[in-house]
Amino acid sequence: MTRIGLREFHPFEAAGRRFLYLVPSAAVFALDECSMAVLDQLASGPRPVDDVTDGLSARFARADVIEAIGELHRARALGATQGDAGPAPEPQPKIIPLSPVPLQTLVVNVTNQCNLSCTYCYEYGEDKIVDTENGKQPKFMSEATARDAVEFALRESRDNPRAHITFFGGETLMNFAVLKSTIGYARRRAAELGKDIDFSLTTNATLLRPDVIEFLADERVGVTISIDGPEEMQDKFRVFNNGTGSYAVAAPKIKALLARHRSRPIGARVTLTRQTLDVGRIYRHLTEELGFWEVGFAPVTTAPGRDYAITDGGFDHLLAQFRALAHEYLEASLQGRHHGFSNVRETLQELHHGHAKAYPCGAGLGLMGVSTDGDVALCHRFAGSADHKLGSVRDGVSWATQQAFLDTHHVFSKTDCTTCWARPICAGGCYHEAHTRYGSTTRPNLHYCEWIRGWTHTCLEIYGELAERNPEFLRQFDDEDVPEKVS
Questions:
Q1: Edge to edge, what strands does the sheet with 27-30 contain?
Q2: In this predicted model, what pLDDT tens digit does every residue of 231-251 receive, in sequence order?
Q3: 81 falls in which pLDDT band (50, 70, 90)?
Q4: What is the DSSP secondary structure assignment for residue 273, as one 8-state letter?
Q5: Is 72 within 8 Å of 38 (Cβ atoms)?
Q6: pLDDT of residue 90
Q7: Could you give all domains of the chain from N- to C-terminal order, each with its CATH number?
Q8: pLDDT for 83-103, tens place per residue?
Q9: What separation in angstroms does the CA of 144 have from each of 110, 149, 150, 348, 372?
């Protein structure tokens, strides 16, 4: 006799209601009482349909139970089985693009030099991939190479009506002259091609002179500031070459930028270390005292054993800190107030769009990074690395190289990920983190797994609360693309 059993999903509760996160489809499914009862009946193992309907006959009409079973089956929360072990896992196709994907974001490293000497820096510290002091790449991108990068971005955006360029470093503003001329050139060329073009940059804020601020505001350039919090936290690792802290220099310039540049929200990007894990205090300082619109946090990328590396206990503490701030976000959202914790907003956006990722990010697909000599790599963190090169802005990108990368880095090539319910959101995690931790971009970031599952569960609870109590809030994500994060 054919039996029915549970398929792959992650249950959670919100607003007094039970939900399922349906893993293969990345859909969120709200349960009514009859559907909940059906799942409870099957919690101990597969059963014949008649047994399920008979077991619920005192509470629900047979027709209602049959309808609930059919709905759960269509949602792939249930499946048919001949045995006692539950439905066999559905084979997951390893879908890889058959032709080049339009480029969404090109990260242009206009310099590989920096006026700070941050202890934990992945580009200049102990975990660096490229030797920016003695390597073959020029320390500053030339205007000619920058223009080639613009042409590459416009060409590879293909049929997309908009191209996006993010300027990066080193410290981006050390090559402000080339950045400035490149924006002017890019606007002219985009207009000639009938395209829109958008710009952003990341900076440590120490070189934000008045003329730079005026330019960024006038050109509506999106700005992300790398800053780690109050003065004692910022100055623990983010120092000048002589060891002097950078907060006293950066803070007044940040305030000047925020006062002048109001056409786009200015965000802060925080690197969290073992010594700086007070997320709530950092958030309040950056939003309430400095005036940032939003703040995003990321654990430091580093090999294990470094003094600043976050340990297992540190990730537990970090998750508790994230959860506390996420619930502040929820309360503000229920009341129609803005809250600037961008990590939860970005995850809610992905959940709302039903993203089921085959890859953790757009690196090597819709996002690429350009080194100062014009070589194109997976992303900005690999810019200048011969082992991660895809092509160049002058000669283009090899589709065969891209396909080989996409084949070996697909989530279903990562054994540990294939049974994880959080894989639609994570897909194994950052390639650069994997390279730094495990020596290969193909490896999943296993040290993050419990942290990612805990954080995704928290965001699912918040999504469910909002869906039940303030669904209007979620409508902001309906037509909003999920941007690629550059950090």
A1: 9-14, 17-22, 27-30
A2: 999 999 999 999 999 999 999
A3: confident
A4: B
A5: yes
A6: 66
A7: 3-81 (3.90.930), 106-402 (3.20.20.70), 403-474 (no CATH)
A8: 666 776 666 778 888 888 999
A9: 11, 9, 10, 41, 11
List Cβ neighbours of 199 (8 Å cut-off, separation of 6 or more).
164, 165, 166, 167, 183, 186, 219, 220, 221, 222
Range with the poorest average pLDDT among 188-192, 309-313, 421-425: 309-313
Place of tokens 């693309």: 481
**Axis-axis angle for helices 210-218, 247-260 (nearest 10):** 40
Whether the per-residue pLDDT at 124 is higher than 70: the answer is no
Contacts of 368 (CB under 8 A, 6+ apart): 103, 105, 106, 107, 376, 377, 378, 379, 390, 397
What's the Cα-to-Cα distance from 307 to each of 142, 273, 453, rounded to whole Å?
37, 9, 26
Give CA angle at 340 (339, 341), nearest 5°: 105
Pairing between β-strand 196-203 and β-strand 396-397 as defined by DSSP bridges: unpaired
Distance CA 297, CA 276 (A): 11
pLDDT value for 136: 84
Task: Output the pTM of the full model.
Answer: 0.94
Evaluate whether 175 touches 202 at the Cβ level (below 8 Å): no
> 415 is written with which tokens?
């054994």
pLDDT at 128: 76
In angstroms, the CA 88 to CA 6 distance is 10
| Cα 393 from Cα 374, distance rounded (Å) | 6
The candidate with the shortest Cα–Cα distance to 118, out of 255, 278, 301, 285, is: 301
Cα–Cα distance between 118 and 243 in angstroms, integer? 9
Interstrand relation of 294-299 and 196-203 (parallel, antiparallel or unpaired) = unpaired
